[in-house]
Amino acid sequence: MNKQNFDQLEKYFGKRLQRNVPLGRFTTARIGGNAEGLVEIKSAYDLADAILFLWHERIPCKVIGGGSNLLISDTGFNGVVILNKASHTNLDLNEVNAVVYAESGANLGALARRVSLDGYTGLEWAAGIPGTVGGAVYGNAGAHGADMASNLDEVEILLPDGRLAHWTVNEMQYAYRSSILKREFKSAVILSVGLKLDRGDKDEIKARLDEYTEARRKSQPTGASLGSIFKNPAGDYAGRLIEAAGLKGARVGGVEISSKHANFFINDQNATAQDLYDLIRLAQKTVQEKFGVSLETEIELLGSFKDGGK
Asked: Which domains does the chain have, with CATH numbers?
């Protein structure tokens, strides 16, 4: 960005604007270069206002939430990162079911656990998932045989042309770990969502929460990671293929393929983003050569990376 851009930003955002901010602190893998500018917002209204201003001024921008599914390059982001902390929630009740409305920066796992323990069923599967509601809706996050497509009632979206839209689950055109936003409208911004719930038996719901929590504890490694790196190919599992290719424990720089679950890449030695990217490419190349399967990343990349032939 140039001086004129920063003058515009400082005039509009005032002291909220931070400059040259390391982004690794905002990702679950603790990886990422600097953002030229960063602004934290705390409501859906402020989010829409900020994005419309940045679009109007043609200043590059990116909204991030929990940073659990985003690999930011070592060169960072040449623009403004909007750190989405809009987290207001409201439960709309009737006699048999409910809709929980949440701003897009709300933590999905915490929200799911709270409504579940209050006796509402439908989101138990999400209780252990990191990241925000908006990110989950955007990428159709899922676990334990369920996903956001099974819960979504409505999503409030700021479209790239500046229009405010309210889409149903059908309009989101969900697929496995994908939506029309992720495929065709990547610059659109989710402001808030409504998620369908049913009343249930508290003891049964608590039992499912405990079951899912224990399954996650047993199968998934701890440490700094982005969660599942690859989508599961049809009829198989990415982790199984990576393990069968002999890559459990493989390392590039400060990143290692977990010995507990091969679809998790752990930053355990102050890794760079390029380390993680190179390990991703190594896994893709090896699995393709051994099994003829092309692994597709579940995570998103932000910034520039070098292909070194690994």
From this structure: 3-84 (3.30.43.10), 89-219 (3.30.465.10), 238-298 (3.90.78.10)
| Per-residue pLDDT reduced to its tens digit, 2-34 | 888 889 999 999 999 999 999 999 999 999 999
The answer to whether the CB of 28 falls within 8 A of the CB of 66 is: yes
Any idea which residues carry the catalytic annotation?
177, 228, 298
The answer to whether the CB of 139 falls within 8 A of the CB of 177 is yes
Residues 6+ positions from 139 with CB-CB distance below 8 Å: 69, 177, 178, 179, 182, 298
CB 257, CB 250: distance < 8 Å: yes
- The answer to whether the beta carbons of residues 264 and 227 sit under 8 Å apart is yes
CA 64 to CA 8: how far, in whole Å? 22
Strand partners, 40: 83
DSSP string, 114-178: HHHHTTEES-GGGTT--SBHHHHHHHT-EETTEEGGGTEEEEEEE-TTS-EEEE-TTTTT-BTTB
Predicted confidence (pLDDT) per residue in 208-238, tens digit: 999 999 998 898 999 999 999 999 999 999 9
Structural contact between residues 134 and 152, judged by C-beta atoms closer than 8 angstroms: no
Please name the amino acid found at residue 217.
R
pTM beyond 0.90, yes or no: yes
Please give the Cα distance from 114 to 240 (Å, whole number).
33
Question: Could you tell me the CA-to-CA distances from 239 to 28, 217, 257 in Å, in that order?
Answer: 20, 16, 10
Cα separation of 302 and 223, whole Å?
22
